[in-house]
Design brief:
The protein is built from ten helices and five strands, in the order E-H-E-H-E-H-E-H-E-H-H-H-H-H-H. The protein is of the alpha/beta class. Strands 2-1-3-5-4 form a five-stranded parallel sheet, sandwiched between helices. The relative contact order is 0.17.
Amino acid sequence: MKVALIIENSQAAKSAIVHEALTSVAEPLGHQVFHYGMYAPEDEAQLTYVMNGLLAGILLNSRAADFVITGCGTGMGSMLACNSMPGVFCGLVIDPTDAFLFSQINDGNCMSMPYSKGFGWAAELNLQDCYRKIFENEGGAGYPKERAEIMRKNRGILKDLKSAACNDMLTVLKNVDQDLLRSAIAGEKFAEYFYANSQDEAISDYLRSL
């Protein structure tokens, strides 16, 4: 699985901690991690939590990534921004129980975490435990197990509801503020990672045109 990490500007100082925690869990399980930034507070390309959502939408709808991990101070803003995008189902994950239940019940493709609120001593251990609960189990298996089928059905209903409520991603890209979009894809490694992994030529072509 291709896992994308996105860090916004208020939490950029913790980028290395989050990236190390993620790779230490995901890579031994056979997943590839692509860090789309930010990498440090002084990065030229500054991402806001709103851009986190837009970038998550680009990565998931183009299939350049299979799963996105992002966050902000509380995790709330990034979660809301991500869920405003078509095809993105983002959960707020604070602890390993959240991670396990989100994976087993909701089987989403994006998680947002708080990197300021409650982020204290041994925070990297909580990150590792959360990532482990996401990646070590098959998503959508259900909890409790006897409710797995109704949960699967409800996920399908939600997916259809979101499809009816949202424009497709290419339409979003054309209608969104173009300066916001340019800023969201301005990271130093975006082009290197994205164009090598994107499976949607229309999205790739439109972003290249910017």
